[in-house]
Each structure stands twice: as C-alpha cells, then as structure tokens.
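Recap from last week: sequence in, structure out.
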Amino acid sequence: MMNSQGDVRSHPSTPVREAYDLGDRGEAHVRTSAQARQEIRLALGSAAARRPEQVEDVLLVASELVTNALRHAGGVTGFAVCVGRDSVTVAVSDSSPRAPRYTLPKDLRPGGFGWPIVLRLSREVSVDVGRGGKTVRAVVAVDR
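Predicted structure tokens:
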C-alpha cells in the first residue's frame, strides 16, 4: 500500500501465483514489456468496452512494472492480470527483495520516471516481499 509520501509499504509473501498468473512453473511467460502489453490486451479483449485512455493507463503501468523488473531486479519471475468490474490489477514478480524507491531525477539523464508514473496512474500499489523476491501489484481504475 502507498502512504501519503508516495512510499510503499512492503508485506512479507511469496511471488505471485494466483488464478490469473501467466507464469509457467516458476518461469515467467511474460519476459518483456511488449509481451505484458499483449497479455493485457488479451485480458481486456474479452471484457466489456473500456475507455481508450484507461486502457492506455493499464498498458503503461504494466510496461513500467516489467521494465523496472528487467532493469533493476534481474528480470520477471511472474506476471498476473486480473480484470475486475471497475479495476484492472497487474502484478509483476522478480527475484529482488528490494522495494522500488521514489526518487526525482536530479539532472536531465534519462530514466527514473517509471515508478512515479505507476504511482500516479494506479489507485492502489503494494509491494509484497518474500524469500524468493517481491511482487509489485498495481490496481488501475477503469470504467465499463
């Protein structure tokens, strides 16, 4: 859960393994941001029509979570998407126990904007840390 300063509390748990998990026996089916976006599109395709800008928000959140796992945590070890009535939850697991940090870039170097984007677009964000790494879950509000 995110607090008022934009920090995320970590909860002990295990990497994501749930009904919507797209992983394959401990190895993530989704390995790239493009694959994550494709899985999101497939999951949303069977749901009722949604506003395009909300779909874009979900796609961006998924892309940023996967990119962060690739750049900072050794890769994706689990991926899940759950389409609810008024939200879409994206969960990405990796093998690093370190929670994402919110820092503002001090200069004009590229990077450092993904986590703030996830926090801004998501209704709720949580980080569950366990023995095998962590799972970051982001809930994005959507209309039907």
